[in-house]
Design brief:
Chain lengths: 329, 329
Amino acid sequence: MKRPTIHDVAAAAGISRGTVSRVLNGDRYVSPAARIAIERAIAETGYVVNRNARNLVRQRAGSVVMVLSEPPFEDPNYTTTIRNAIRRLGERDLSLVMMIAGDDREREQVLRYVRGGHADGVFLLSTHAGDPMVDTLHGAGIPVVSCGAVIGRETVIPYAACDERGGARQMAEYLVSRGRKKIAMITGPMDTPGGIQRLEGFADVLGRKASKKLIEHGDWTHASGETAMARLLERVPDLDAVFAASDVMASGALHTLRAAGRRVPEDVAVGGFDDSSVAISTHPPLTTVRQPLGDVARETVRLLLALIDGAERVDSIALPTSLIVRDSA
Amino acid sequence: MKRPTIHDVAAAAGISRGTVSRVLNGDRYVSPAARIAIERAIAETGYVVNRNARNLVRQRAGSVVMVLSEPPFEDPNYTTTIRNAIRRLGERDLSLVMMIAGDDREREQVLRYVRGGHADGVFLLSTHAGDPMVDTLHGAGIPVVSCGAVIGRETVIPYAACDERGGARQMAEYLVSRGRKKIAMITGPMDTPGGIQRLEGFADVLGRKASKKLIEHGDWTHASGETAMARLLERVPDLDAVFAASDVMASGALHTLRAAGRRVPEDVAVGGFDDSSVAISTHPPLTTVRQPLGDVARETVRLLLALIDGAERVDSIALPTSLIVRDSA
DNA sequence: ATGAAAGCGCTAACAG
DNA sequence: CTGTTAGCGCTTTCAT
């Protein structure tokens, strides 16, 4: 009761395996009669192609590997990205293999995997600036794209991302339009696109008013949002707005503000970024910037597929964000 | 400049491919001299085994597929589970392929994939009661385990989970110990283990006091927490505590309570479940029940590996939860 | 302890 | 249009 092979199908249809292979691969040059007989034989035997055999001879892997770079963040966004990538890849009959590149051992594992020809392409997620794996991967000659820019490698690794800078500008402009005068910012880590570009967008709008005193750096965590806000409050007691580069950090800032007796948004307006699940669980609910995560994932896959199909190069793309106004600002 | 094969390694070492294969697979019966020569040749050539070829002859897939059932996809917990599963699987050189089974088409795709022998085992996540795919999968004779019980198939699909019922008991006992008298509950969907068993644990402790009036059903979303709380308040205005089966629903309840002018925890104590990222972003931060998610994922993989290694059957396991006391109760 | 050889299931080039 | 054939790279007897 072994699984049927192409041989069994051929026997059942009374036709050679070569022809069976042809109909399997949608080749032209197959007589209708043969095609019908074979299709019936396939249905009868319950035949399913053996990918190992197929990929062995085709010298392909039949899969794409998504590499998650460790550090912490319990980013609720990952799930959306993964789902959309799977969907899109599935349409092309490519499977999605997940790997983690958190420490050197794991990075080595990814490299071995990819160099071993086990993947037809690489989908990077949240890769850090200066990650040595990136160049090695790229040097291996395998298609590599990233969901979100890879800082320092923007020109070598194509990517799809949301318009980080533009999104931050939207928020900053909104805060200004609401009459806020002293607007502070809690940025993300400065070796990530979200950390860098959201600050740039903020500075675009505030100009010289975006003084050093009004900028604090966080690491995307709730705790870092709390401490950054505390420092800001100490330095600039009369600030009347703060833009946190993520909803999670914004929720931390909210805690500190409440502890300090500031009312939100009356005394201090608070803006977030991501529109993650956290945004509606805070009090007050966060005014934030929504990223078109699903679209970003789909576009990333599109770039990867183009590369796999042989495109010499593809153009990175930034998708527009939208401002979601709730009660915090 | 093709990738080196086992043949190249053999040539470089001046030894037959058979022996090279032996050292590759840690076979005994290889002379130290040969082993050393081969290992050097492997390093020199940069050889990496071709999985397609290996799996073809071994009649294995070399991967495990994790099947995500659609709906509660926003669950921040997925990421932790995925991470831990990848880690554990990686130790055995198995890769993790992700698939989604949200609609019939996708379920069919999963079935084809698995029946096609493309996976050595199946790791189910958040599968619904009555999902037809489960029986088919199990009937296909491939090892299948679930992270969290599959309602109605607890005895046929082995699983690892947290002690849902015990965790709910912890929360209920805590609320009672704090002197709360009228304790309500917002459950999850009653076709999920978390929905059913957390209610059971609640009832274990409250006994007859867990009357119908005090129970509302939610669907894990923030919005359902809001409306459930509203109904509860209308029915039992003098309730003094509420236990929501998830942090997200608890955050919804918090909103409704605030809108109704109830203070938390003074007037109404609120308990959650999961200790997800939402738990610390609410105001006040949630007292909740923590699930040992990483351990659950690891144990699930352990069961699957045992099955793959030929175990006739394995025992499901429930891991203890812990009560995390914050300010909401 | 190791070499030789027979495939694993499939595709693709080549005749016809 | 279709049958035949030569591998893809690796593991695994079977001899030796």
